[in-house]
Amino acid sequence: EAEPAADSPIPQSEFPLILNSTVEKFLEAMTSSSEYHTRIATGLSRAGSYLPMIRPRFAAAGLPQDLSYLPLIESAFSLKAYSRARAHGMWQFISSTGRHYGLDIGSLVDERRDPERSTDAAVAYLSDLHDQFDDWYLALAAYNSGSGNVRRAIRRSGSRDFWALRRYLPRETRNYVPAFIASVIVAKQPEKYGFSPPVEKPWVFDTIDVPDALDLEFLARESGIPLADLRELNPALRR
Fold first, then answer.
1. DSSP class of 18
2. 61, 91, 163 from 155: Cα distances, Å
3. How far apart are CA 14 and CA 226, in angstroms?
4. For residues 137 and 122, what is the distance between their CA atoms, to the nearest angstrom?
5. Do the Cβ atoms of 123 and 107 come closer than 8 Å?
6. What's the CA gap between 201 and 221, in Å, rounded?
7. Helix (H) or strand (E) holding 118
8. Are 189 and 181 in contact, with CB atoms under 8 Å apart?
């Protein structure tokens, strides 16, 4: 795979980046539209807390590490993001897909909001989708709207080229892949596009198994850790 020239607008990446008129429209929107710009800026400001945990998990699975930026367009890296389609968390899993990939989802716990567990589920899901379609653009389209929609678009278009079959996909999915490509281009060279780079923090936490149910207020009092911090560190706990 050829490396981009030093003056190329496309940064080096294991993910297949491309710059065409559609991607350029999203680059323009991210850098000029106040709402979109604000969302990307917010996502980049949060990303530094999670990228040091996410990147090694994609690398260990043999997947492009720049898939780590997917939460930028999914949730702006918010663990508490919630969509109209009832998708939750940083990786925006609906409950059926989350459960399929081993996430505990119930009235007490929702692991779609757990950064580590949901990232492991996202790695497994994206890996399966790439095995299925053998193409990252099609895998991402399926991540957004389901494998069935992508297979239908392949049938109707007679092509496996995302850009050729794109018009046969749901409107949101048509834009999802170019938006992701634009977000990677921005995230890898943020200053060039008027953003502050993520400030990466080491992912270092103690994990302690507790016996049965334990009240967080009791735990906060006994451990000396503020209750707000305990809640922040355990976002999957719903009550």
1. -
2. 30, 28, 14
3. 41
4. 16
5. no
6. 27
7. helix 115-133
8. no
Q: What is the pTM of this model?
A: 0.92
**Coil, helix or strand for 15?**
coil
- Average pLDDT on 138-156 reads 97
Interatomic CA distance for residues 141 and 175, integer angstroms: 9
Q: Which of 175, 178, 179, 198 is nearest to 187 (CA)?
A: 198
| Burial group, residue 146, by CB count within 10 angstroms (0-12, 13-18, 19+) | middle
So what's the pLDDT on residue 41? 96
Q: Quote the DSSP letter at residue 157.
A: H
How confident is the model at residue 211, as a pLDDT? 84
Our measurement of the distance from residue 21's CA atom to the centroid of its chain's CA atoms, rounded to an integer in Å, reads 24
C-alpha closest to that of 75 among 111, 115, 110, 107: 115
- Distance (Å, rounded) from C-alpha 170 to C-alpha 108? 34
- Per residue in 150-181, pLDDT (tens digit) is 999 999 999 999 999 999 999 999 999 999 99
pLDDT computed for residue 1 by the predictor: 47
What is the distance in angstroms between the CA of the first residue and the CA of the last residue of the chain?
49
* % of residues, the chain, pLDDT over 70: 97
Catalytic residues: 74
Both structure tokens of 199: 């400030």
pLDDT at 115: 96
Measured between alpha carbons, how far is 27 from 186 in angstroms, rounded to an integer? 8
Q: Which two tokens stand for residue 219?
A: 């735990």
Tokens 């930026």 appear where? 69
